[in-house]
Amino acid sequence: MNKLDEQFLVVSNRLPLVVDQDEDGWQIKPASGGLVTALEPIMSRVNGLWIGWLGSSEQAPFDELFARFAATHGYRLAAVPLTDEDVELYYRGFANETLWPLFHDLLGRCHFDLTTWLHYQKVNDLFAEVVAEQADDGQLIWVHDYQLALVGHLLRQRGLKNRLAFYLHIPFPSFDLLRRLPWKKELLQGLLSYDLLGFQTLRDRRNFVACVREMFPHVRADIRRRVTLLDLGERQVSVGNFPISIDFEEFNQGAAVKEVEEAAWYLHEHYQGRQLLLGVDRLDYTKGIPDRFLAFERALEKYPELRRQATLIQVVVPSRTLVPDYQNLKETLDQIVGRINARFNEHGWVPIHYLYRSLDRTQLLAHYRSCEIALISPLRDGMNLVAKEYCAASVEEKGVLILSEFAGAAAQLGEHALLVNPYDIEGTADAIWQAYSMTEEERHQRMRQLRAEVRRNNVYRWVEQFLDAVQPRTEQLYWHCTEMRREGDE
Ligand code: ADQ
To answer: Ligand 1, from 201, 282, 287: best to mutate by most atoms within 8 Å of Cβ?
Structure first.
């Protein structure tokens, strides 16, 4: 098959890159993360192009680095230049202080500010300009996430006829919440310019369709299909739910290697045979970390058998450190951990081990593999890949997953995880006790089912299902995806 026949253009806020300098000069490599893992194999097969912001104002020789990247990775990159002011108002402002909390049902944290909204439109227009310059006729353009909701609309305004698809990685709110946004009509109109809209869960998809029906009563919705069809008169928009996932085998095989096994063994040695509970999150108020600490505290109070026998390891990756709400959250976490540890600490046992940093791959896998319980309790989450990674890396099939019912992942994993309402401290404390005292047999049985689910619905199936829903179908892309999924299944 000719590599250039059908191309593929991906647009995301940030280019998935790591650029740094060592003794051999400037280096460039793909960032790690689910989206890159999912899209890179297909991008290189079809000579794709990825457009996004560089993510920093570092002065590196990007033209040369991008050429080197294309030669070694088989797909190309193009940068959208953003000024500090753009980043401040569009990214930190409208995307992270308006859309992010609103879409995660946290209305109290929303700022509605005309200046940041105007800038959001301006930066979406900048993205559209770069995409329009680079796009070829017939190419599928796939835009990602809430930072870029209007790009499709702005491309249509420029006369582009390409198939346009959009995927939202975070939840979509109910109309009761969305109606608070002064610019909801413009936002929905922007989204309706795409040909295909993908959401994480059926609930998100239904929320979106309900919002469209409220704001645009003339739009007819055919909801009987696998993908909802919205009839706008002159054109149709497909709306589906496609739960994102991970490369199961990457975690399954990665967790089984000797280096990880040894690191996992040391971890347990260090904690002297206690049961370990694990939380792994970006620093974010949607992840429910303070409530999780309080639930663990309540479990220690209510079930004294847990004292000296259970330790919560909470790993937090620094994130959005310049947004004030995130700085406050960091202080809150320090205070709660300090208080709980001072209250219960005895005979060399510290109830909460709190690490404010990223873990390298070996350590991340070792933590997943060795911790008996994963405590994943976001207040709201589009999907939550940590839950799936934990299952895939649980190669001894002895881990118990405690999962928030408000994580998108609950739709797939809820049956065999212990589901909790993260706002219900008492209920979460009881779930901690239930997980702690669960028999080996029940652990195995639940984890086997969870792993089978993540293995079956892996990230290659996610891409395949999404591309299958693009109309008219992108035959070659779909063909490549099916091939990759088959290879992954074998
Ligand atoms: P995120 O909010 O970033 O993503 P999540 O899905 O949990 O959340 O992914 C986090 C990633 O970061 C995981 O791959 C995890 O391994 C990694 N990570 C987290 N803490 C780490 C640590 N301490 N050290 C090393 N790695 C760490 C958004 C949405 C989610 C949605 C994803 C994908 O908010 O709901 O699942 O996009 O669509």
So the answer is: 282
Q: Residue 34 CA: which ligand 1 atom is closest?
A: 14
Calculate how far, in angstroms, residue 224's C-alpha sits from the geometric centre of ligand 1: 33
Q: Exactly one of 104, 119, 153, 169 is catalytic; name it.
A: 169
Marked catalytic residue, from 381, 430, 468, 480: 381
- pLDDT tens per residue, range 285-340: 999 999 999 999 999 999 999 999 999 999 999 887 777 888 899 999 999 999 99
Domain 248-455, CATH: 3.40.50.2000
Q: Is-catalytic flag, 489?
A: no
List, for residues 387-405, the tens digit of each pLDDT value.
Answer: 999 999 999 999 999 999 9
Q: Where in the chain is the domain with CATH 3.40.50.2000?
A: 3-244+459-489, 248-455
Q: Which CATH superfamily is domain 3-244+459-489 in?
A: Glycogen Phosphorylase B; (3.40.50.2000)
User: From the alpha carbon of 317, which atom of ligand 1 is closest?
Assistant: 23
Q: Give catalytic status of residue 381 as yes or no.
A: yes
The number of the ligand 1 atom at minimal distance from the alpha carbon of 355 is 23
> Which of the listed residues 362, 367, 386, 458 should we mutate to test ligand 1's pocket, taking the one with most ligand atoms within 8 A of CB?
386
Alpha-carbon gap, residue 328 to 468, rounded angstroms: 43
Tell me which residues have their CB closer than 6 angstroms to ligand 1: 33-34, 169-170, 244, 280-282, 315, 317, 358-359, 364, 381-386, 389
Where does 89-227 show beta strands of DSSP type E? 140-144, 164-167, 196-199, 220-222
- C-alpha triplet 210, 212, 218: angle, nearest 5°: 115
Compute the distance from residue 202 Cα to the ligand 1 centre, in Å. Answer: 21
Decide which of 356 and 480 is more confident.
356
Q: Could you give the CA distance from residue 130 to residue 77 in angstroms, rounded to a whole number? A: 11
**DSSP letter for each residue of 193-238:** TSSEEEESSHHHHHHHHHHHHHH-TT-EEE-SSSSEEEE-SS-EEE
How would you class 410 by CB atoms within 10 Å of its CB: exposed for 0-12, middle for 13-18, buried for 19 or more? buried
DSSP state letter for 20: E
Determine the Cα–Cα distance for residues 394 and 410; give it in Å rounded to an integer: 18
